From TrEMBL:
SUPFAM superfamilies: PLC-like phosphodiesterases. GO terms for molecular function: glycerophosphodiester phosphodiesterase activity. GO terms for biological process: ethanolamine metabolic process; N-acylethanolamine metabolic process; phospholipid metabolic process. The lineage of its organism: Bacteria, Pseudomonadati, Pseudomonadota, Alphaproteobacteria, Sphingomonadales. It comes from Novosphingobium ginsenosidimutans. Residues 49-161 form the GP-PDE domain. This is Glycerophosphodiester phosphodiesterase. Gene3D superfamilies: Phosphatidylinositol (PI) phosphodiesterase. InterPro entries: GP_PDE_dom (IPR030395), PLC-like_Pdiesterase_TIM-brl (IPR017946).
Length: 346
């Protein structure tokens, strides 16, 4: 090896040691607090891995419980299973109210047709929220009749949530609807800042939110992606990207190693930037939440941020066994369903 080769090797080795030291997790104190589970739509029916398209109601796993997403029973059960935050999908109605419903159209999951926004609250209350769920492409409908009258108003959802924090997923993209939502939320007396609620959506939808509640966590998918991508390289230089200011960073369970200073140093940097940290499920092409109990073992003991959970039914009690509210039959059915879920991904 030439003299220059040895010098370059020495410089690179020294740089590696410096960057490793600068980003050492142990340099930061373990943060105070505890990990917070975010239950996606409360308690939901999971789509199969091969489910395609925007509406996946006819491609669900065989149901092991009767709970239907975005309904009051689903919210209440998510709380009982250990969720510290629940993600919900408010949608506008024809008479100026808001209900919880994920899609813009009713055809996907209910016995109704057309846009949610074209129906009044009374009309939506007359529908069956579980009408169109099927594990076999429309041959059988095991939840049909169980969701009659279960589409809840915003006010009912807030009453059920109580002190539990909410993540409002604003799927409407226009500022005018967002402004009406702000008025509706204020009318309930709920203070999102005091409750530690959060909001996600487009920039147009978030603008009225930020104006109404300065300092509340309000982020778009684009912001989270920008923060995450920037930190993947800037973090190793000891920098916190400007894109992370007041935003959120998403850490896939299978890529924790790629984030400089994980977990303690990264958490300290994000706290200084007013940003939150969300641990999500293993990601390849698209993000998803945790849905297997063994994934809980991959959460660092010192992590006190948020964990996105698609299946609180299995993940909640795995993290905190005291929250296990399942009976022996449900336990046995869950074990069988989890084996099938794992096999489908192998």
């Amino acid at each position: 090896m030439t003299v220059w080769g040895r010098r370059i090797g020495f410089v690179l080795a020294l740089a590696f040691l410096v960057l490793t030291f600068v980003n050492a997790s142990w340099l930061a104190d373990s943060p105070r607090g505890y990990v917070k589970l975010v239950a996606h739509r409360g308690l939901m029916q999971l789509p199969r891995p091969d489910a395609a398209g925007d509406c996946k109601a006819q491609a669900i796993e065989p149901p092991i419980h009767d709970f239907i997403e975005n309904t009051l029973p689903a919210l209440a059960q998510a709380k009982r299973l250990g969720a510290q935050m629940i993600e919900i999908d408010p949608a506008p109605t024809a008479d100026g109210r808001f209900v919880l419903f994920h899609e813009a159209a009713l055809d996907c999951r209910t016995n109704g047709t057309g846009p949610v926004s074209a129906q009044t609250l009374e009309q939506l209350k007359a529908l069956d929220a579980g009408y169109d769920y099927s594990p076999d492409g429309g041959k059988t409908f095991p939840l049909r009749g169980l969701g009659q009258g279960l589409i809840p108003s915003l006010e009912e959802a807030l009453a059920t949530a109580g002190d539990t924090a909410l993540l409002f997923n604003l799927r409407f993209a226009d500022g005018a609807t967002a402004a009406r939502f702000v008025a509706a939320l204020k009318a309930t007396g709920r203070d999102p800042v005091a409750r530690r609620d959060a909001f996600s959506g487009s920039e147009a939808a978030l603008a009225p939110i930020r104006a109404a509640w300065p300092g509340v966590l309000a982020y778009s998918d684009e912001q989270v992606e920008a923060c995450t991508r920037a930190y993947l390289w800037q973090g190793w230089l000891g920098l916190t990207p400007a894109a992370c200011q007041g935003s959120m960073i998403a850490i896939p369970l299978n890529r924790q190693w790629a984030f400089a200073g994980w977990p303690n140093r990264l958490q300290a940097r994000m706290e200084a930037a007013g940003a939150k940290v969300m641990l999500i499920g293993p990601s390849a092409d698209k993000p998803r939440g945790l849905d297997l109990p063994e994934q809980v073992g991959e959460i660092p003991a010192s992590f006190t941020g948020y964990v996105w959970v698609d299946d609180i039914w299995s993940v909640g009690p795995a993290l905190r066994p005291a929250f296990n509210k399942r009976n022996p039959r449900e336990q046995a059915e869950l074990a069988k369903a989890l084996d099938a879920r794992r096999a489908a991904r192998d």
